[in-house]
């Protein structure tokens, strides 16, 4: 290898070295600051290719994306003196890179720590002034908006951090409270079940009673109408009989008696007779004396 | 960035260049000394394994210029390959030039400047899936278990790839928060029964809102509430309510069945009673009319000849009566106080109509006989006593 080539290679190497030290790329996901002997000289460097003085300037890159602060679930006391276990998270990102670096030396864990302390304190205050019901249902949005505001007030200037949103992920009851809720729910269901069954019995009883009433009424009315019809028949018959028989009551009783005799004596009845009856008038004497 | 320093690390990459098919394809266009160098190199390589050794051997035996050329060639080839890439139909490519966002490419064969452009592939057509199963408080402070399925797509690959850390995890947290928020502002009953669709809609709106705020570039296509049920601790009680509802229905049905059977039956019986009554009425009136008319007809004749008719009627009737009956003529005047009537013998000799035998047993007959005897004696005693008194 000739000396010229060697020199060329060395020069190229040095150039590359300088370039590799001086040129730097800030990724789209990142923001950076430039430090010169520890002093910030370049603030919020945007994505792209940039130049720094090698060995003199230093570049610190930070995550520019929306980051998540996921706190551990912890106990809070509501104004109703009930404990709840709250799991929350916050979405934040670095807004002022310089302020962020100054406050946290660019250490994300430190930033998270600071944020979560603020969040904890804020949530504790907010929960303490609200009942469980308000926290769980009605005022979540207000609560969260307020928390976001509160955090932003404290963090935007000091930490260079913008909090986009604070959300309560879970609001749970501690075990003993959960159990009492379960017991209450069970009791409510039992009540409902009993109510359903009783209602069923009530309705069934009503339907049956109504049917029985209808039956009784129908039968009674039928009896009434039937008796009326029979009575009408009897009356009619009586009238007919009376109008016919009243023409000669004596003759009627005579014929009726004869008919009765015929009907009364059946075949094979034994009749004891005295020969002095009217029927046997001629039996002993042709003149009937 | 191995290729940034070709002088230092160019040679270790030679073996890879040699194995490359592209190298052979383009071989014809290269100067001959390169071919020679290649051959030489390949011979050396046969006995060698490590990159460091390789380099040492080359510098000893091979021509420096030739080797440099090979390095450049390989470098060019590698860069050539790196400048072309394909994107699948399902993908979009987010292109960054020197770390800065440049453009978003669609499917097809695409070019980039090696080392300068960086491509992040994002699947933007696939419907992704996330599941949440949580136990949570409702508005009326009950606890329910809800299973949620979120289907989403990446709409904005730039935001998805660059703007947010761990987008999938963000989605899960946001979905959980949105779900709990909506469940927390709904009473338990609607969640368990009819309100699921509404709940899903509300969660979707809320979740989309969060995702937009966090710049995730994701779009929720659908939210399904797969299951919403009471927790296991109270399941039995809830099931019992269902059973109770069934019981209620059953009781009502049974009662209705009872009513449906008893009322028509009563109506039927009533109808029968009325029919019978009116039949009775018709019968009795008709009989009355008949008998009255018969009487009147007879009476008309009777008025013409009362004595004869009367006599005739009497005799006919009595004849009728006596014809059928057994007759015992008792002449009391005969004065026999003790009279024996062999009634049972009489009965036996008589022709019996069917059925009589069944009805009259011998004990009946003897009882009847006793009765007749008693009757006769009492009459005899009264007549004798009266006669005696009369004498």
Automatic annotation (TrEMBL), chain A:
InterPro entries: Band_7, Band_7/SPFH_dom_sf, HflC. It is a single-pass membrane protein. Residues 186-206 are annotated as: Disordered. Its main location: membrane. Transmembrane segments: none annotated. HflC and HflK could regulate a protease. It comes from the Bacteria. It comes from Bacterioplanes sanyensis. Keywords: Membrane, Transmembrane, Transmembrane helix. One of its GO terms (cellular component) is membrane. CDD domains: SPFH_HflC. Residues 21-185 form the Band domain. This is Protein HflC. It is found in: Membrane. Belongs to the band 7/mec-2 family. HflC subfamily. It holds the Pfam family Band_7.
From TrEMBL, chain B:
Residues 82-242 form the Band domain. One of its GO terms (molecular function) is peptidase activity. GO terms for cellular component: membrane. Residues 11-32 have a biased composition (Low complexity). It is a single-pass membrane protein. Gene3D superfamilies: Band 7 domain (3.30.479.30). Residues 234-261 form a coiled coil. Belongs to the band 7/mec-2 family. HflK subfamily. HflC and HflK may interact to form a multimeric complex. This is Protein HflK. The gene is hflK.
